[in-house]
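explain this chain.
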Amino acid sequence: MDSEQMGRDLVALVLTVVELLRQLMERQAIRRVDQGDLSDEQVEEIGTTLMLLDQRMKELCDQHGVRPEDLNLDLGPLGTLLPRD
């Protein structure tokens, strides 16, 4: 394996971890919104932040030639790392 391929694989791994964390944060935010314990301003801020994070993730994938579906690692009998939407 050449160093360029190793670099791409490392970028894909880092982006996978970032995407996993982004999705976990999104689920937690949705739970908090559903509980109704956030102000309208907080809900708006969370929505904007999540939208910007999603946009930035797409930009990073494009910059590094990684498709979003490449980030979903197959864990064999456990299924995939990221839920399939």
User: Anything to note?
Assistant: The chain has a mean pLDDT of 86. The two ends are 33 Å apart (CA to CA).
